[in-house]
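REVIEWER CHECKLIST
Item 1: Sequence provided? yes
Item 2: Single chain? yes
Item 3: Sequence as submitted:
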Amino acid sequence: VTPNPAKTGEEITVTGTDLDLVSAATFAGDKTGTIQAGGSPTSIVIQIPADAKSGAVVLGTRANKSVTSSAVEMVKPVITTVTAEAKLNEDVTITGTNLDIVKAVIFEGNTTGVIVSQSETELVVTVPLGTLTGEVKLIADNNDEVVSVDELTILADVPEFAAFPSMIKPGALMTLTGEKINLTNEVIFPGDVKATRFGDRTS
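Item 4: Structure as written out by the authors:
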């Protein structure tokens, strides 16, 4: 059987004798391959199903006879690099090999990223809300899993203050301006005095 290791979704060539009698090919995980037209008594080409697992291939005939090949190893995705830092809802890039057989990207916090673009060597994925700093897990079409060596660090999304009054009377409401002010949940004044009430908060 060649190639071996093989890639799910692609083809293998089986050589031997009386292969023109083969009418079915079953991969590990009880997944059915597709025998391509143009085979001969000594050689047939079989398309591997996307969800096939590593293991032997069983070749069956219409006479209900079968023969089992040696084990065929299915390649797994390989992670080379992961974007080091990102904020929630930002895109990160994962490079490596066999990334075209990835069906899901799982981040720390058990969140599932949205795959924006995908090729054999690169994945671009949006980091969803709820993601924590940690490893990145890739799930292949056949449910094989690989985990990154490096961690993705999630950067805090914090308010940025642009202006505030230089003087204010105790008990009065003061206005703070800037960006992402709606993320503020506590304001502390000098002397470790905490604000006791808030008005409207906008972004």
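Item 5: Key structural point noted by reviewer: The mean pLDDT is 93.
Item 6: Recommendation: ____
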